[in-house]
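Here is the promised in-class demo. Please do not try to memorize the tokens; focus on the logic of going from shape to residues.
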């Protein structure tokens, strides 16, 4: 008998579709929700029932608790699965679900609160005997405190938002001179993303491995761990590649950090699926970092090596059932790797590239899994995370999995937007990845960006424009020569005059308010202005940050390309901004201010 008749999934995209699949296997009817920006999204079409929440902005749709609860009531749902992101780690929403008579498919609100504050979590873990990175267990309230801690602990330090996660609200500060700016930036991100500006400080570990442990806990006192995942390869402190087992963890260390994770879960009375994240330094020391009180993006690799369906376990635990296996029954087989295929451009520092997907074909074959929320004709919406798909492979060992991933990447076709397909190919072929190293300094290097771009040109068929549209037409035909059949992809660039017209239009747009387009600083992406760091009349130097733009859940600093004086500042914090929109003009002194 199914534990629930209907479950509302309070999320979107690939994770919503992934949860739908498990619900159907359990003979539970899935219910979708969507924003106006997601009317034509794949997760809406594959659900048997879907409810509109409101406008595209997350605050008015996927983060609007009242509208989600109203949708659940209208649908007659018995439970809510939050997926990850949005409201997944919101204790208030978990309580609101319970108050509305809905089962929350997640941990108790008290556990979310205990782990949601990184400051409180560090204190709790320290008291439970779980090792933490040296630093504060209280919130830091000024840049002066940061400087004092730097003198005590040594530089560099990491300033982190207490309610942060996913790299949000994390700033690395290398000296006393950098403390004030980093402190303010971490506070700002904490407030913007989590409505909590509180920050704490810990020693910044040089080139550690980011190793996390998957745990499951039921309401009957059973807690198990499912091995570790290595999530070291990141950009902007956000994960790009995950694998299990970690190349740096042996059986003895696996047992030790697994026990640390289980102890951490017990310390907060945890229930459901969760992840203990930690840092493994070059000396083999493992430190608690934080706990993610939800299913993880990278849960896929754990499923591949254990054979378990973690979402199924979540649902059954929420229904009051005991875990389906004991720690002794957990078996890890082979090696799994996940590559996050984001709509981002490596050559522009991983800036998001929202737009329309004009062609889409997933790889397949033995040991290949694709979790995706798009199809040909789908839009990568600039309001949300740039994740297009998760490409996962399973092999008998790491090298087998690496080669299988390269094969699958070569088969994957995504046209219309720039993605990380070429980046992942370049990375997995790099010596540092082959040797199982951290690839520190390689991921965001110019060398890898150039290799990624070259590989992307070999696999993509449409060059995106700055606004996410296509700058080329594509035609796929079949040809046969001497009995041999070929698939031929014709890449038809726009006529030269089309590019000339576009450039003139962009120039005219920039000159709409300014006489000299070359002096204008424009936004490289669509998003929201989080902060403006200058005022009219300020003198700036080349490379100085002018403003910070948030796009697709990432904070991007826009810097002055030259030294000069700021004039005609036209944006303020909180303003929406479009690609190519003028932020300000920087007049060089040589221009005489004219």
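The designed amino acids, position by position:
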């Amino acid at each position: 008998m199914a534990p629930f008749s209907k479950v509302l999934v309070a999320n979107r995209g690939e994770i919503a579709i992934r949860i739908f699949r498990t619900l159907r296997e359990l003979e539970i009817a899935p219910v979708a929700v969507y924003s106006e920006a997601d009317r034509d999204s794949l997760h809406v079409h594959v659900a048997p029932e879907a409810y509109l929440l409101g406008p595209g902005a997350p605050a008015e749709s996927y983060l609007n608790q009242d509208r989600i609860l109203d949708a659940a009531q209208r649908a007659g749902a018995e439970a809510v699965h939050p997926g990850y992101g949005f409201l997944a780690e919101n204790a208030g929403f978990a309580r609101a679900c319970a108050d509305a008579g809905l089962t929350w498919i997640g941990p108790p609100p008290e556990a979310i609160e205990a782990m949601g504050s990184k400051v409180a979590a560090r204190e709790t873990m320290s008291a439970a005997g779980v090792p933490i990175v040296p630093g504060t267990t209280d919130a830091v309230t000024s840049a002066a405190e940061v400087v004092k801690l730097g003198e005590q602990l040594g530089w560099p330090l990491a300033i982190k938002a207490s309610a942060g996660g996913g790299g949000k609200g994390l700033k690395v500060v290398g000296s006393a001179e950098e403390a004030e700016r980093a402190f303010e930036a971490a506070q700002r991100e904490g407030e913007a993303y989590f409505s909590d500006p509180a920050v704490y400080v810990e020693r910044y570990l040089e080139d550690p491995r980011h190793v996390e442990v998957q745990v499951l806990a039921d309401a009957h006192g059973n807690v198990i761990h499912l091995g570790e995942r290595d999530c070291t390869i990141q950009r902007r402190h956000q994960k790009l590649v995950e694998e299990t087992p970690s190349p740096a963890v042996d059986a003895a260390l696996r047992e030790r950090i697994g026990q640390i994770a289980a102890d951490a879960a017990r310390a907060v009375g945890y229930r459901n699926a969760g992840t203990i994240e930690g840092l493994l330094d070059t000396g083999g020391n493992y430190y608690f970092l934080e706990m993610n009180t939800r299913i993880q993006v990278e849960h896929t690799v754990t499923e591949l090596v254990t054979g378990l369906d973690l979402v199924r376990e979540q649902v059954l635990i929420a229904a009051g059932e005991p875990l389906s296996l004991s720690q002794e029954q957990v078996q890890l087989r082979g090696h799994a790797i996940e590559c996050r295929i984001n709509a981002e451009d490596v050559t522009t520092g991983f800036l998001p590239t929202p737009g329309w997907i004009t062609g889409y074909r997933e790889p397949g074959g033995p040991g290949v899994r694709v979790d995706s929320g798009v199809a040909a004709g789908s839009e990568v919406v600039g309001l949300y995370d740039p994740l297009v798909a998760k490409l996962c492979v399973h092999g008998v060992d790491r090298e087998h999995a690496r080669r299988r991933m390269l094969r699958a990447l070569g088969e994957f076709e995504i046209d219309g937007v720039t993605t990380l397909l070429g980046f992942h190919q370049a990375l997995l072929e790099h010596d540092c990845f082959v040797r199982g190293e951290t690839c520190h300094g390689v991921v965001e290097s110019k060398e890898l960006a150039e290799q990624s771009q070259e590989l992307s040109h070999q696999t993509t068929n449409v060059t995106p424009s700055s606004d996410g549209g296509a700058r080329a037409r594509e035609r796929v035909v079949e040809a046969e020569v001497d009995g041999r059949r070929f698939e031929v992809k014709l890449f038809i660039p726009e006529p030269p005059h089309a590019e000339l017209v576009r450039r003139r239009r962009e120039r005219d747009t920039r000159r709409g308010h300014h006489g000299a387009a070359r002096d204008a600083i424009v936004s490289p992406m669509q998003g929201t202005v989080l902060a403006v760091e200058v005022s009219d009349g300020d003198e700036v130097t080349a490379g100085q940050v002018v403003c910070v733009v948030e796009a697709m859940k990432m904070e991007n600093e826009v810097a002055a390309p030259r030294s000069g004086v700021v004039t005609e500042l036209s944006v303020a914090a909180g303003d929406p901004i479009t690609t190519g929109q003028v932020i300000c003009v920087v007049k060089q002194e040589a221009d005489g201010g004219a």
